[in-house]
What we know:
The chain has 403 residues and is of the alpha/beta class. It has a domain at 2-227 and 383-401: Rossmann fold (3-Layer(aba) Sandwich). It has helices at residues 2-8, 14-31, 52-59, 72-80, 98-108, 135-150, 170-180, 235-239, 266-272, 288-294, 308-311, 352-358, 371-380, 384-401; strands at residues 42-46, 63-69, 86-89, 114-117, 154-159, 184-186, 190-193, 204-212, 323-324, 341-342. The strands form two sheets. Strands 1, 2, 3, 4, 5, 6, 7 and 8 form an eight-stranded mixed sheet that branches. Strand 4 (114-117), helix 6 (135-150) and strand 5 form a beta-alpha-beta unit. Helix 1 (2-8) crosses helix 2, helix 3 (52-59) packs across helix 14 and helix 5 packs parallel to helix 6 (135-150). It is an enzyme of class 2 (transferase). Belongs to the class I-like SAM-binding methyltransferase superfamily. C5-methyltransferase family. One of its GO terms (molecular function) is DNA (cytosine-5-)-methyltransferase activity. Keywords: Methyltransferase, Restriction system, S-adenosyl-L-methionine, Transferase.
Amino acid sequence: MCEQLEQNFTGKTVQDRIRECLEYGIKNKETNNDNISTIQYNVVDVFSGAGGLSRGFMDAGFNVVLGVDFDDAALKTFQENHGHADIMKLDLFDHNNIEKIVDYLNDKKIDLDVLVGGPPCQGFSLAGKREEFDKRNVLYSAMVKVAQRLKPKIVVLENVPGMLTLYNGVGAQRVREDFEDIGYELAEPQILYAPEYGVPQIRKRVFFVMKLKEEIKGTFEYPEPEFTEAQFVTTEQAISDLPSLVGTENYLLNQLWDYKEQALSTYQEIMRKDSKIIHNHIPTKHADETVRLISLVPEGKNYKALPLKELEKRKFKYNEALTRYHSKKPSRTIDTGHRTHFHYKYNRIPTVRENARLQSFPDDFIFYGNKQEQYRQVGNAVPPLLGKAVAKKVKELLDNEKK
């Protein structure tokens, strides 16, 4: 029982996990909802993190039943933001843990339709002979083995674009071969550009979509771009309605904010649609010197725009140091909180909520854990709107099979 508590609940102590278990049971009893759906397609998300990809599938009408990760804070975030989905804390370096996923779905009598995930890319970073015992292979191989055991109709794997060119394309070829060996056919992988799907951020991700040949006869088509460059949602259109935090000296983690302004763009209206209050909008206390330096950087520029006398005083380690976003363009790629990117107007880094907006997480999607964990969850996620665009095409393919 203690082992099951550790897998499915995220408290730091046994007592915390027991309390969460009781609260979950009471909530489930009151709503009388089950995560088994006879209408929607069922989704499992491995290497889920906070669940940006599966949130996109959920928003496209899929039934997300389970998120699997090894990060307590990310799993808490996943569970609180994916309806009645369950979570499992599993170390997928140990492939024996895959059976726990299989047992869970069997016990719940859930037929898995779609497996999604973004395994860490170390498993692809190998040229030459692939050895089963090489630990760098194990995490990626776990996703292949989950698919082999559960035979979902569709597998969606996302990763960094470099996957296509790394070691002359060995990583992408490996994905093709490994999934073909277990009965899947790979649609030609494609890099999707987030601003073309309504995400106010310069971000590219590569998607591999595999269909189970014995189940799916149709062909998967990637989503066509929905926005031209002239229509891209800008940083200002994404976050200008959020409180400025100017003069704020409260750095407590769980403070809440009211919406002090009306939504100033269609994008903001969409982000605020199901939220009455602002979470995760916590300022960061910067050193006075940092504030002074960033105040000298025009929007859209970085440390290279500092006066020469400032550049002569110090060396900057990162190419993107002191990067200030441009209000009239999408933001730069959201990182995991390394304090290199700054608000287009204010002399501070964006808050977790501002980064979440730039990643297309709606305001009712609340992040848990300490502030560093929250930044990491946002930065590592697939933008939900990008996930939704892929999900709609997956749904279209599955629906066509039923006609």
